[in-house]
Design goal:
The longest helix has 17 residues, at 70-86. The chain has helices spanning 70-86, 92-95; strands at residues 6-16, 21-34, 40-42, 47-48, 110-123, 126-137, 142-155, 158-163. It contains two helices and eight strands. It is mainly beta. Helix content is 13%, strand content 46%.
Length: 165
């Protein structure tokens, strides 16, 4: 039996009376299904529910592996800066020099702005890089942040992306 995802919503109301006003908040849950076209349909009536609470999860702060020297991190940072500058508008044939097996370009009017806090971790002969990339969207003038976990391999004197795109 398939159960559709359960969603919660909070309704805030102000009740105005002749002598005073009162703010009331109520929380409801309901089932929402999505069809193959991506349209959403509410399949149950809203049911009163307890208000959701803040998650008690904490994210572990990643730090660079101390066994990776500054020259290697600098080399990888230069490689990733070059790649992410080309990635939004480059052709598949251009990107195949950077990505093992090639990749499709984003085909977006983004400009690379910076790598945000990349961390480097050795995984056997490869390096795993966790990084946020800041792009500037030229169409909307918005800043777009994308998070990547990339596995890099050194082939001769050049780095290539083995996985993560």
């Amino acid at each position: 039996m398939f159960l559709p995802p359960r969603k919660s919503l909070k309704v805030s109301s102000n009740i105005w009376g002749s002598l005073h006003s009162q703010a009331i908040e109520s929380t409801y849950s309901l089932n929402v299904m999505k069809n193959k076209d991506g349209d959403m349909v509410i399949v149950t009536n809203p049911t009163i529910a307890a208000a959701p609470t803040k998650a008690k999860a904490t994210e572990k702060q990643l730090q660079t592996d101390s066994s990776i020297d500054a020259e290697t991190t600098s080399s990888i940072t230069k490689f990733l800066t070059t790649f992410f500058t080309l990635y939004p508008s480059g052709t598949a044939s251009e990107l195949k020099y950077y990505v093992d097996g090639g990749t499709k370009p984003l085909n977006k009017d983004y400009r690379f702005a910076e790598l945000v806090n990349p961390t480097f971790h050795r995984q056997g002969d490869n390096i795993r890089v966790d990084a946020t990339v800041r792009f500037l969207d030229s169409e909307t003038d918005m800043t777009q942040y994308s998070q990547y976990t990339l596995i890099l391999e050194k082939a001769g004197t050049n780095w290539t992306i083995k996985s993560g795109l």
